[in-house]
User: Fold this.
Amino acid sequence: MVDTPDKNRDKSGETRPVVRAAVPELRAWFAREVLPLEATLVQFLRRNWRDKGEIEDLLQEVYVRVYEAARRELPQAARPFVFTTARNLLINRFRQQQVVAIEAVADLESLEVSADDPAPDRAAIAHEEFRRLQSAIDRLPPRCREVVVLGRIEGLTGREIAQRLGISEAAVSKHLTRGLSALSDMLHRDSGDGARDE
Amino acid sequence: MSEPNAAEVKERAAEWLQRREFWNWSEADQAELDAWLAQSSAHEIAFIRMQAAWDRTQRLGALRKPMREPQRAARMRPILLRVAAACLALAVIGAASAFYLSHTPEKTFATTIGGRETLKLADGSVIHLNTDTVLRLRMDAHQRHVELLRGEAYFEIHHNAAVPFEVIAQGHRVTDLGTKFLVRADRGELEVSLVEGKARIDASEKRDSSHSAVLSPGDVAVATAGSLSVVRKSQTALATELSWQRGVLIFDNVTLAEAVGELGRYNRRKFVIADPAIARRTIYGAVPATDVDAFIRVARNVMGLKVEQKNGEIVFSQ
Assistant:
């Protein structure tokens, strides 16, 4: 609906394999255009899929589909493309399960995916960013926060953090991993418009 | 549905990132990360996502200690470029420039050992390349023609009687009649498994009805230089054969020798079975195609074998 196969035809009407986007460009596009939609996307998936334990996997699959489609050709507008992909994925899943949640389908059908959907206001987001970062750091578990602050803000290496706190390097590594993973969820999912996981 | 567990992938991405940012990082580590990224789009995306969050936290550090950050930031660039280069090389060996020139009607696609690639064609057809595969594609208004020069590919073809789709491999021809089918070229033998629809196989490039067959779902045709035979397989068996698309190898009561042979298609490391008696033992289960260590753990813990790594070889014994 957003991208039609016809775009991949030459003017001569010749069918040909599609040109790919260069990888760095593709990665930059994904980080710039797709990741900021995560809060709304997660909200959409949660509203339409009963099993909350599968949301992470669904999100991953939407991302993989979007990424692989964009590798062939970058969509002109990321937002409608991402939500169309998510909707199609859910519809497919409903078909496979042969269990159709009526209200879910209603929601899916009514979903607006027009290209002129307003994009999030980037200036406002930038303004909020520092406050949000601080709040994300503050919500980490205490030990985890301490390690992340020493690493990211004080700029210590893993070994230095271990020495400073008198804990093992393996423990530092574990805290950092957990901290980064939690930060990635908080930063990608808390949007200024109140879209937030329960 | 076909991707690894998202929570685990996220965790792994976070682990890679902290390893790279906070600990000694060698060429070998980078190679390991590159390999992980190349394994699936899910890995690549999880890493981009983690990296993006990480880059955002830089703002926090920069505000408080502006002196420390530029060094770390400067390290990222070559790594990303290298990852990019690796991905590109994997996707389009020998054909990079052709991609951008795009008017040549013929293109060659290749995967490395352990690699996997999906080609989506403008007509809606999809071709999945398995490990170590080379395929030449020619498409125009009148023909859709694939030459499978090496390896294995799964074809999901949008049927169009006016523009037939054909695959040539090892001197045999497979013609689509509305189909999903798997083609594997291996040691002078061609194996065609029909998953859905119909296809015709001609055991020579000339259409000669004495050596041809029309396949229906479940049929597996094996063509050699002088013979063509067709057997029927269950849907489960076919699904097993296609499990590589998910990066997994399913072994359904195959011998250790066969399993190791299969694993060898996806990995550069060499396997040696030191003891003929254990070569015939059968195994059952699924392992990640490119995770040799997972297979070693199965051999050790499940089969109770001794596994040693010497001179770059992995040696199995009693």
